[in-house]
């Protein structure tokens, strides 16, 4: 019990200081197999709930680039169970210190193998909060679930430790392919250093990152796909702030809310609540 408590404290301290944390394997191989199969079904347009996900950021012309489908939990029950997994919610609560955790949205991510590097497939340096300023504070956290082993060869995510303390920066573009140009133009604080670390993981492991942590990913130079679900979460006290660029986010409409309303209700299912 004492050891467990000490481990929990070390985990939340690491997250507080670095803005990310990598969990051990949470998803076993049998569940991973189901998740990969359900991912394929969603991409093939088979929606077991009868409701389509949001596919507004992807067209087949993007070819070898990253395929990103938002809100797969609208379409598929296996993916929904993962996006609302209480274990992921409990870890997110531990890391953020929140009493409750809700789903904001999910992103099903497929980075095809691209050994000849003909097409991009990079995810440009960004902070998630740049897109989520419809939340009054950056009280959001992402759980990124690896469906395959990930490492620098297949374009695993890279995160910049401690960058969650730098505030919102000037360079934030998920779709930018020239990450070096982005880095050169980044207004990082004078006393800080930009030293990304690869979030290499085994399939079934889950990484967590703060909404202000700078992250991105390089190309998948292998011949196999890199598959994952990014589960974007809010703390239970996260409120809507009207009038920002975040109003363009597809989930803001679901709240149907007024400035100051809690991001809560059916569209934002609760993963975890502390008793
Ligand atoms: O999968 C990637 O490479 C990037 C995902 C991402 O930006 C996120 O989960 O916040």
Structure report:
This protein has 275 residues and is α+β, with helices and mostly antiparallel strands. It has a single domain (2-273), classed as q2cbj1_9rhob like domain (Jelly Rolls), CATH 2.60.120.620. It has helices spanning 2-18, 29-43, 77-83, 86-96, 179-184, 252-255, and strands at residues 20-23, 67-70, 100-111, 123-126, 140-146, 157-159, 197-198, 206-210, 215-217, 226-235, 270-273. The strands form 2 sheets. Strands 1, 2, 3, 5, 8, 10 and 11 form a 7-stranded antiparallel β-sheet that branches. The protein is globular. The model has no long low-confidence stretch (mean pLDDT 94). This is Phytanoyl-CoA dioxygenase family protein. It comes from Cohnella rhizosphaerae. GO terms for molecular function: 2-oxoglutarate-dependent dioxygenase activity; iron ion binding.
Protein structure class: alpha+beta
Q: What ligands are attached or bound here?
A: 2-oxoglutaric acid
Number of strands: 11
CATH topology: Jelly Rolls
Number of helices: 6
- Per CATH, the architecture is Sandwich
Unreliable runs? none
- Structurally, the number of domains stands at 1
Radius of gyration: 18 Å
Coarse morphology? globular
InterPro entries: Phytyl_CoA_dOase-like
GO molecular function: 2-oxoglutarate-dependent dioxygenase activity; iron ion binding
Protein name: Phytanoyl-CoA dioxygenase family protein
Keywords: Dioxygenase, Oxidoreductase
